[in-house]
Design goal:
The complex is a heterodimer of chains A (290) and B (291). By secondary structure, chain A is an alpha/beta fold. Chain A has 7 helices and 12 strands. In chain A, the strands form 3 sheets. In chain A, strands 1-9-8-5-4-2-3 form a 7-stranded mixed sheet. Chain A has a 3-stranded antiparallel sheet with strand order 7-6-10, covered by helices on one side. In chain A, strands 11-12 form a two-stranded antiparallel ribbon. In chain A, a hairpin with a 3-residue loop joins strand 6 and strand 7. With 291 residues, chain B is an alpha/beta fold. Classes of the chains: A alpha/beta (290), B alpha/beta (291). The structure holds adenosine-5'-triphosphate (ATP), magnesium ion and zinc ion (ZN). The site of adenosine-5'-triphosphate has 13 residues of chain B, from strand 2 and helix 2.
């Protein structure tokens, strides 16, 4: 990753990885703090970037602060490497660092993502960076920032539980889809970013380092490797992942991956495909080879 | 056997305003509840008393005499300007063990305890019924949810069990169980007070604080609420502090009474004695005007 020698060697007249060394150092300090207090939101001074806030500037700042010349980067948006958003971010990072880009999950040393975690479990040599739109999981039940901070400090989470209870009374189940709140290290309630419930279990005891950053709200948080991450659930109303009701990916045939549902209006039919494009392609290639 | 007090209040003073030596000095004396020197409002001054296990202690006094201010300090809603509160509990712990005191609270002045100790005491040691249901309930959250919240605080995570307990408590307080999943904003004032009571007793607190529970209710509804409190007092071992400016309520519920005026205790003793033979002129006027 970053080293002193890389300082001046930037592209297009910028410092390597666009941010100046002081900015990177500050962000890295915040990251270290976030890693040492799993699930705790660390404020930081968000920088201006040539990408509009709300388009992954949080994740981008983390990536730019920790990327080094030997890194290989993968950028995905909802599991897909070729969406406009992912392509723009990749192009920008390439132009200011020159590092190698990949769509191959296994080859990547850094993965910057929006809304998904790759199906292939990440290893201890990989870091995943999440773009976070809303870092505060308690905002649904409490509008005041001072009060949510107090609630976190005292682990005073009964109002969040009450929210889930009321949800069950009204809907017969917990109706939260993406952004399902989790307990990190049995201490802090954390917003895992808008990943589907399907991905939540990948955060539990993961081998890789998970970094989260909200650019607009200026918060960094982390789940270090091998940290307990538990979705909020009741003894008699368990957390459940999405049910694809036996449907399989129509491209690769996988029944073990998170599926995107598309509806063909004209034909009136539903179609299912892997959301993780790289996983789907590899699965397909393997099947062909056999 | 002489029991130890479950709550000891010592020299509790609350000054609204900046305060000065005149109003803060325990020995100072002046008429009224406005400090003659700094013009601060004296909410409570130098309040000391003991509350014993299973006792029902009454607090009476005219409007503005500092009753609510006192109760809200005891419930740790507002901080006193000075003074101390000690809690003692040697009864059985509830099933969850939560009605006990955290170690940090034993023998310590609760007012200067850490915030998590205070919150624990507030949630598990005390139950509070406020004068207005708006303060005591989340009116938009279901009646069941209001009660369940305190069980959630005690780390209960079994929906079926919590709902069973909530419906038991609603039954006790005569709220139709079918209305458990309705928000109390749809309920009458008397029903709201009974939901508050159900909520307050859900964690089997050691001390129940009742601030004007019957004020603003119809006489027939008042009688029901008072009946409920008396039944509870017989059924569950709980000490109560009953605040009222209604001497009928005090007579019906309490063994001992404190009379407050201008933020100070001016008389205290057995309720019967105070009502039959008040010593202070102020109490005489209170008693006579109530007849
Ligand atoms: N937040 C506050 N700021 C300033 N003064 C206050 C505040 N709260 C209460 N007071 C004053 O403290 C005094 C005691 O008020 P408190 O509400 O305790 O009386 P009370 O005995 O409960 O009256 P009531 O019978 O009408 O409920 C009153 O003079 C009141 O105006
Ligand atoms: Mg009052
Ligand atoms: Zn597929």
């Amino acid at each position: 990753m970053n080293s002193a020698a890389e300082k001046i060697d930037g592209k297009n007249g910028y410092n390597f990885a666009f941010l100046d060394e002081n900015a990177k150092k500050e962000i890295r300090r915040r990251i270290l703090k976030a890693i040492s207090i799993p699930g705790y939101q660390v404020p930081f001074g968000s920088r201006e970037l040539p990408i509009a806030r709300g388009w992954g500037t949080g994740g981008l700042q983390i990536t730019l602060s920790i990327i080094g010349k030997s890194d290989i980067l993968k950028v995905i948006d909802q599991g897909c490497d070729d969406s406009v958003n992912a392509v723009n971010i990749r192009r920008f990072i390439k132009s200011v660092t020159g590092v190698e880009m990949t769509t191959d999950t296994e080859r990547a040393t850094l993965v910057q993502t929006r809304h998904r975690i790759p199906e292939k479990p990440l290893t201890k040599d990989q870091v995943i960076i999440f773009q976070v739109p809303f870092p505060e999981p308690l905002r649904t039940v409490e509008p005041s920032e001072a009060e949510t901070r107090r609630m976190h400090a005292e682990a005073d989470y009964s109002r969040m539980w009450l929210y889930l209870y009321e949800d069950i009374v009204k809907c017969g189940e917990i109706s939260i889809g993406a952004r399902y709140p989790v307990f990190v290290n049995n201490r802090y309630i954390m917003d895992p970013s808008p990943i589907p419930r399907w991905d939540i279990e990948k955060l539990n005891n993961s081998e890789c380092l998970n970094l989260f950053c909200a650019g607009r709200e200026k918060r960094i948080y982390a789940i270090p490797p091998r940290t307990s991450v538990k979705p909020l659930e009741f003894e008699d109303f368990r957390f459940r992942i999405e049910d694809f009701k036996g449907n399989k990916c129509e491209k690769c045939g996988s029944a073990n991956s998170y599926l995107d549902e598309t509806i063909d209006e004209a034909a009136g039919t539903r179609h299912y495909y892997c959301s993780d494009a790289d996983y789907c392609e590899k699965n397909l290639n393997n099947a062909v080879r056999k | 056997m002489i029991k130890k007090p479950v709550l000891k209040a010592r020299n509790i003073t609350k000054i609204f305003g900046k305060g000065c030596p005149t109003c803060l000095d325990d020995d100072s004396d002046f008429e009224g509840n406005i400090c003659p020197d700094c013009k601060s409002v004296v909410g409570c001054k130098n309040i000391s008393f003991d509350l014993y296990p299973n006792e029902v202690l009454g607090i009476v006094g005219e409007s503005g005499s500092g009753k609510s201010t006192l109760v809200r300090m005891l419930y740790l809603d507002i901080e006193p300007t000075k003074g101390e509160m000690f809690l003692e509990f040697d009864g059985d712990l509830g099933d969850d063990g939560f009605s006990g005191l955290p170690a940090q609270a034993i023998g310590a002045n609760i007012f200067s305890a850490k915030s998590f100790v205070k919150r624990h005491i507030k949630n598990f040691f005390f139950g509070m019924v406020y004068q207005s249901a708006q303060l005591g309930l989340k009116l938009d959250v279901t009646a069941g949810g209001n009660i369940v919240e305190r069980m959630l605080m005690a780390n209960n995570r079994d929906i079926k069990k919590m709902r069973a307990r909530a419906s038991y408590l609603l039954g006790k307080t005569e709220i139709p169980v079918e209305r458990m999943d309705e928000p109390p904003k749809n309920f009458s004032g008397g029903m709201q007070q009974r939901v508050q009571i159900a909520k307050a007793i859900s964690n089997e607190p050691a001390i129940l604080l009742l601030d004007e529970v019957t004020t603003g209710l119809d006489v027939s509804v008042q009688a029901k609420v008072l009946d409920l409190i008396r039944t509870l007092q017989n059924e569950i071992k709980v000490s109560m502090l009953v605040v009222s400016h209604d001497l009928g309520v005090i007579r019906l519920l309490t063994n001992r009474t404190i009379v407050m005026k201008n933020g100070r205790i001016i008389e205290s003793g057995l309720t019967d004695q105070i009502l039959e033979d008040p010593q202070e002129e102020y109490t005489q006027i209170l008693v006579n005007s109530a007849l």
